[in-house]
Amino acid sequence: MSFLSWFALGVALLAVVPYLAHRLRRRKSDDKPFAFARLVPATEPQARRRSELTDKSLFGLRALSVLLLALLGATPFVRCSRLSLDRGGASVALVLVVDDSMSMRAKDGGESSRFTRAIAGARQLISSTREGDAVAVVLAGSPPRVALASSTDIGAARSTLDTLTPSDRATDIDGALAMARSLVASLPQADKRIVLLSDLADGTDTPLPDDPALWVPMPELPKEVGDCAVLSADRSPKEVRVEIACSPKATAEGRDIELRGGERVLAKVKAPGGPRVSVVLPIDPRSTEDLDVLMTGSDAIAEDDRAAVVLEGSATSIGVVGDTVEEVTATGGAPVVEQALAALRTDLDVRPLADLPDKVADLRPYAGLVFDDPPGFTPEARHVIEDYLARGGVVLLALGPRASRAPLGAAFTPLLSTVPTWETAASVRDKSVKAGEGPLGDSAQSLVGLDPKGRAELADDDARGFSRWLSWSDGPLFLGQREIGKGEAMVITLPFALDQSDLPLRPGFLAILDSFVARARARLSPRRSDAGASIVVADSAVIKGPSGSISQTREAGVSRAVLPDIGRYVINVQDRTEVRVVAPVPRELTLRPRAAPQGGHAKVGAAPGAKLDISWVIALGLLVLFAAEIVMRVFVRTDPATS
What span, in angstroms and rounded, lies between the C-alpha atoms of 35 and 219? Predict the structure, then answer.
């Protein structure tokens, strides 16, 4: 405090004045022996009674009054560490941008996390609002969300802050500030404020914009600290490969990496040093329990030191079902569709399948299936394909002359309700493909002038169920697409055989296969995703994660769920169970704050050390004490000898 503050508080020393006044008449009487006094009962001397501190309650009131006078003199010089709005008299439109990303879990050596302190600061700011002020709350975890739209209901703002919890998302400060500006721009208040309560650690080095309405208080939050996290733990039959990343001021060297089944430690190794390292832990191939990897020791964020083990073997292939005998005879090598898929050089393997497996579990390695002119599907195959599509698989069906000769009991459900017909070239007037504006783009132009030996035609009801990508010149469907369950089906009314058309020799053929592969890859259901990512789920899905049940939202006719925290999630859909693991976002481990604009709080008229105006409370206390002294002197009967 300043000299004036200490000087004002020095008035409290005057509290000794009432004490001296009450003891002013204290004297020590002289003892004079008197022989006959022994015959008289002893009586307390009057001088001794006067020397005692009398009217202690009255003395207490007077001393307390002097102390309050000292406080009253010091209040103009006292400031507090609370956040408050220094207003100019008009109503304020306030947007609180609260960072709920993973870096806000850091405790910086203290007992409370950064997020807890940010929420406390937000409550202090809301407590300084008045009637007529509008408050909104935006969350800066990726993706940014509006927790509370602009409202003059201050109670609703307090309730919103009570419901906020930290997450393991990445940070998107720029997106949150853009959202805050759009909220505050439409409000009628002339005084508009945006308060950013964040550690500014979003993995970028670009300084924050020098916005006159932006205030970044709580300078103790943006602080670079050290943290290490387990990014992934992938299990193969005999080992678990663990990847660890650390922020620039941290290292995992010397810490133990433990493989645990429940609370049992199954294997343990020492972590090497370095910003990003990998270790391998042995495992019993017969083990079927849920496993976790734990990094011992401590750092700034404890929540990212543990990761669930993911079983390797997710969908990495494209399966091709066709008559390989005729194709090999015609081309002298692998079927043309397999060669074309290999020529695309995708990250998905191409595997020929002589027959469709009888169990849907056997199709888990396949992101997509290609059927080249199949003679229908058996009841068992139809059940497998239906389940495969319901799980998110993608199917490409090429129809040819064999498809029209499906044997008794074979059908094409759930792709088609009716067996297609095959029309020879002699029965078709115009066999050319009509150029369109579909997803194939300019590549579709190469299919114009196609002159096949025949074509398949779908029933009207089946044709209407597909989105037309390309059509024949006389109207029937050439290439279409439709969604079935969580999956997708594409149908083309020509086979891929070279003896039926020159389709496989045209660039449009590769464009069709490339679109199919891209859709298959897009619909892969990865076992691991980043925190805060949105996933597509079935409407009846029940999702449970580390923090409890996860709700769903419906967007554009699709149910989606956001997984905000690191850990294992169990998704139950009817009789099927899927396990999804959420991992931390690597850039969230930087923990290096961005540069904040200097003097932002002065521009918006708010300060972290606001004046503490309690003078009216002290003055009221003085009046109460003065009234109490009058009551005591008038109505309380005292001893005349001591007054």
Answer: 83
Q: Which residues pair with 235 in a beta bridge?
A: 240, 311
Structural domains of the chain in order of their starting residue, each with its CATH number: 3-79+615-642 (no CATH), 84-224+591-607 (3.40.50.410), 228-313 (2.60.40), 317-522 (3.40.50.880), 528-583 (no CATH)
Alpha-carbon distances of 338 from 77, 153, 393, rounded to whole Å: 83, 64, 19
Cis, peptide link before residue 439, omega less than 30° from 0:
no
Residue 447: per-residue pLDDT: 85
Cα–Cα distance, 589 to 294 (Å, whole number):
17
Contact assessment for residue 58 and residue 632, using Cβ atoms and an 8 Å cutoff:
yes
> Can you tell me the distance from the alpha carbon of 276 to that of 355, in angstroms, rounded to the nearest whole number?
44
DSSP-assigned states of every residue in 57-80: HHHHHHHHHHHHHHHHHHGGG-B-
C-alpha–C-alpha distance, residues 98 and 79, integer Å: 25
CB 470 within 8 A of CB 448: no
Contact 273, 253 (CB under 8 A): yes
546-561 residues labelled b (16+ CB within 10 A) or e (exposed)? beeebebeeeeeebeb
List the one residue out of 363, 354, 403, 405 whose CA is nearest residue 383.
Answer: 363
Q: State the pairing for strand pair 134-139/214-215.
A: unpaired
What 8-state DSSP symbol labels residue 408?
T
What is the per-residue pLDDT across 82-141, written as a single tens digit (0 to 9) for each? 788 877 667 899 999 999 999 999 987 667 899 999 999 999 999 989 888 999 999 999
Tracing tokens 């507090």 back to the chain, one arrives at 80
Q: Is the pTM of this model over 0.85?
A: no
Q: Please give the angle made by the CA atoms of 474, 476 and 478, to the nearest 5 degrees.
A: 110
* Span 516-560, pLDDT tens digits: 988 887 776 667 888 988 887 777 889 999 989 999 888 766 788
Among residues 200, 282, 271, the alpha carbon closest in space to that of 230 is found at 271
